[in-house]
Amino acid sequence: TRLGKVMSAKRYHYEITTPVLHRVNRESAYKVDTILHDLSVENNPVESSRVKLYNHLSSINYFTFIRDYENAQAYAIDLLKSVENDPVVKSRSNQAGVNMDLANIYLNTGNYEKAIVHASRSVELFKPGLINQLHAQVSLLLAFFRNNDIKNAEKVLRAACNHRLIKSQQDLLMVSRLQLLRAAIAFKSGKSE
């Protein structure tokens, strides 16, 4: 029964998050409120750490998508406690992912100092050389940039440009994004490139 509940929660999580990857308006494609309600109802009687993980991930994605950052932040903070302390869901990758979610929430709410803390933690926790670490570096770069800490933004930009996916030109969209960020840093610092 518990495995069935976890599988349902996982399926619901992917039903909520997958459309965004394909640039589909997930609110019209799926009945998100019903899915989130089903997840929370399933979470109560089972008391499963994994169901809670998927429920919270779904809620974070949904509330971030509709720009309800207050609710997204509440779910992310609660989930961070779980992935740091609950042995069932405790892992470096879960901690890194939740920290990156929090960094992005704080970027969107203008709390750049907290964004720096969580993005830094995310960069440390993700495996070096993988795409998630690169995304965390970009979040950290943006947090420093928006916090007017150009020196540290440049430092993170150099680290991101030395990432294996950038050096090998495997992700051309990210290469272009970093070039744009380099230009923004140069403009803000008064340098000409």
How would you characterize the overall build of this protein?
This protein is mainly α. About 80% of the residues lie in helices and about 0% in strands. The longest helix is centred in the first third of the chain and has 20 residues, at about 1-20. The model has no long low-confidence stretch (mean pLDDT about 85).
Topology:
Blueprint: H1 2-21, H2 26-29, H3 32-46, H4 49-65, H5 69-85, H6 92-109, H7 112-125, H8 131-146, H9 150-161, H10 164-167, H11 172-189
Q: What is the count of DSSP helices, taking H or I runs of 4+ residues?
A: 11
What structural category arises from helix and sheet content?
mainly alpha
Query: Could you tell me how far the N terminus lies from the C terminus, measured between alpha carbons in angstroms?
Result: 61 Å
- Kindly state the number of beta strands: 0
What general form does the structure show?
elongated
Pattern of helices and strands = HHHHHHHHHHH
Computed CA radius of gyration, to the nearest angstrom: 18 Å
Fraction of helical residues: over 70%
State the low-pLDDT regions, or none: none
How big a fraction of the residues is strand? under 5%
Largest sheet: none
Chain-averaged pLDDT: 84
